[in-house]
Structures are given as structure tokens and as C-alpha cells.
Amino acid sequence: MFGRVGSMAIKMVVSILVANYLLTYNNGILSTSTGYVFLFASIAGLGLDSFIVKELHQYPDQRDRILGTSFFLKLIAGLFCIPAIFVAWKLFPLSDVPYYFIFILSFTGLFQSLTVVDSYFQSEVKSKYIMQVQIVGNLISAATKITLIQLSAPLLYFVYATVFDILLLSIGYWLMYQRKGRSIFNWSYDKALARKLLSLSWPLIISGLMVSIYMRIDAIMLKELLPNGANEAGAYNTVVMFSEALNFVPVAIVTSLFPAVLNARRDDPARYQKRLQNLFDLMVWLSLAFAIFITFASPIIYKLFRPEFASAAPVLAVHVWGSLFVFLGVASGQFLIAEGFNKLTFVRTGVGAIVNIILNFILIPPMGMMGTAIATVIAYFTATFIILFIPKTQKQGLMMLKSLFLVTLFQKITKR
Question: Is 182 left (phi over 0), alpha (psi -120 to 50) or beta?
Fold first, then answer.
């Protein structure tokens, strides 16, 4: 956790320096270019990571076959994304963005194929090695971007730097894996295993695509729907950076606490419900504290930026309230998986994406960045609480509402 916080701090400091150097217009061009390519990230990843971990748990002696097959599948998917992005660009190009920016960034999917090593270390409960790679990678990335700023480099070099970040992590994964007698040159491809992995992962590919749209489409729409859209998108990118800074926290907490919740589900249904309620409470308390702090601190935060970013401060004060629903959504997502309601994760993400797109069309033209922030918060709320309208998950939806409105907190206080 501390490694992630340190890594996040490094990224944020460098992002502020880069934004102040590029200013709103160029920062908008860079952020929407990366966002456009990010829409294809789920295809490049194939949704394989969790299944790789599971396979390695079950068949540790088949490590080279599992990693080799997964690497080959991701490599092919990454190669496929390059022409796929070209076709998408021909159909839906971004204004003011040269295609060669998109072409350069489209290689990120190819370089991400070595992330299978991350899954291996997860299966061995040795994620600290991956964290070491990421921290070193972030330090080198920071040094690279600061050097580009000192050299007054043009925007194109920052596009290359974005791809270099991914390549750097892949090289780090490779070097870390090569230690202690392991070698990627021992990996092998198994056709039957490839078919098995793809048959399991295709729903996650679709879900991942919806998540990509859900998380990135707002900045792209902001840029395309407004006359000064690039400037607005550049400022909005800084909003998202701060608002989503702690989104890794609920994932880390739920991952560590949910095994105890699952044990209670097996042994004692009443204790299961209590632990689930406590988890929802914790998510609300943490996200509420974060949202209140950022709301009041937003004017001070934007003192770190050039004056042309100042209009983003009130937008951050609104956007950050979406973190309440993100935190709850992560916890309830684990509940859906535990109960075998996997398909509902697709439904909630799809509904969130649709709501976000519709509201962006309505709110961006009259309200600009603020409209995007409002659309995002409503979309997060809708996606999280749609389970209230599904009979088999309604009870858990009500539990989340009790946490959200601090009902359980007051109950705990009054019992004392």
C-alpha cells in the first residue's frame, strides 16, 4: 500500500509539472489521444489476468505453458489493436489530433503483453516484486519527463514518453522474472489452453470495453463537443487525476478483507451480512473523508497550476463526490462475484456507460467541464445502485444506501 502511495505521489507531481509545461491545449490533445487508445485496452488485455492467476494456482508445475500461452494471446491481441485503432480512427477521428500520435500510442497494447509476469507474481503472493518494478519505472519516467521539460521538447516527445512508460515496465517485468532460474525463453504455447482461456475471458473483454468507455469517453466528448474542447479537456484531465487518485484504495482493501467475508458466508449467514455491512460502511467513511477534504482543498490544489487551469477547481469539488460510488461499487462488485451474479457486473457497467454518454450530450454544450463532472457523478451513482431494482440484489442495495446516508453509523453511536 505504501509503495502504491509513493508511486502515486511521484506520478501526480510529474503530471502537474507536465500540465504546467504543456498548458491546457496541448495537455488536452495528449490526454484525449491516450484516452482514445485506452478504449482498446480491454481488447489488448483479453481479460485474462484473473484466469492466469487461477490457472497458476491450480497447476503451478505448468507455469511455462500457462505464461507462454497467455503471453502469445496478448501479443496477438496487441498486434490486432494497431489496425483496429486505424479503422476506428477512419470512422471516428478526433479533431486537431494528428493520426501519427494515435499510431505511436497504439503500440502500448503490444508492449503490455509482458504483464502476464504480474499475474505470475500475484499467484506466488509476491506482488512486492511488481511494486519494485513500478516504483523504479515511475522514477525513470519522472526523470525522463522532467528532462523533456528542461529541454523545451515539443508535444510529440511526450507522446513517445507515454509509450516509453509502458515499454519500461515491460522490460522491468522481464528482468524481474529472469531471476532465480526463471526464463521467458522456456515459455511454450498450448492451443487447447488458449481456447480454454479465451472461452472464459470473453465476457470480461466485453465488460472491460464498457469500463474503458465508462472511464474515458467523457474527456473525449468534452473535446469534440465544444469549440475550445482541447483546452477544456486539458484542464479536465487534471480534475480526473486528483479525483481518482485513491481509486486503488478500495481495490486493495476489498482484496484483503473479502476472504474473511467469504468465510462468514460459508459458516454463518448472519455474520456474513454484518461483515458485508461493515465493508460498505468502511468504503463510505473513507471516500466521504476524501471527498470532503478535496472539496475544500480544491482552490488550494489549483494554486499549484498555471492560472489557465483555475476554472477546473470547482469542477474537481463536484467530480470527487463520484468516489463515494466508486468505492461502494468496488465492494458490491465483489459481492456480485461471490454470489455468482457475474452477468450483473456487465449490466451495471453498461448502464453506467450509457447514462454517462447521454448526460454528456445534454450537459456539455451548456455547462462545459462542470457538465461532464455532473454526468460522471450521476453515472457512477446509477451504475452502483442499479442493483436496487433487481430483486435478488435489492437487499444489498439497501445495505449500501444505509451506509451512504450514515444510518448504520448513527445506529452504532446510539447503541453505545
Answer: beta
Residue type at 324 in one-letter notation: L
Residue 4: band (very low, low, confident or very high) from pLDDT cuts 50, 70, 90: low
Q: 3-state DSSP call for residue 153?
A: coil
Inter-residue contact 283 to 249 (CB < 8 Å):
no
Distance CA 190, CA 206 (A): 24
Res 215: pLDDT: 76
CA distance 51 to 359: 35
**Residues 81 and 43 sit within 8 Å (Cβ to Cβ):** yes
Give pLDDT tens digits for 334-358: 777 667 776 777 788 888 889 999 9
The amino acid at residue 334 is Q
Q: Which of 185, 170, 215 is nearest to 74 (CA)?
A: 170
Amino acid at 274: K
Using alpha carbons, list the distances in angstroms from residue 8 to 135, 306, 309, 325. Answer: 9, 21, 21, 21
Listed in sequence order, the residues at least 6 apart from 7 whose beta carbon sits closer than 8 Å to its beta carbon are: 131, 134, 135, 138
Model pLDDT for residues 208-241, shown as the tens digit of each residue: 777 777 778 888 899 899 888 889 999 999 999 8
Distance of CA 54 to the CA centre of its chain: 22
- Structural element, H or E, at residue 1: none
- Distance between CA 219 and CA 216 in Å, rounded? 6
Residue 52's closest CA among 110, 113, 128, 129?
A: 113
Q: Please tell me the distance from the alpha carbon of residue 24 to that of residue 142, in angstroms, as a whole number.
A: 20
pLDDT, tens digit (0-9, with 9 covering 90-100), for 110-122: 888 777 777 777 6
Q: What number is the average pLDDT over the span 187-200?
A: 79
- State the Cα–Cα distance between residues 170 and 115, nearest whole angstrom: 7
- Write out the three cell numbers for 98: 494528428
Q: Are 351 and 339 in contact (CB under 8 A)?
A: no
* Residues 349, 210 contacting (CB under 8 angstroms): yes
Q: What is the DSSP letter of 98?
A: -
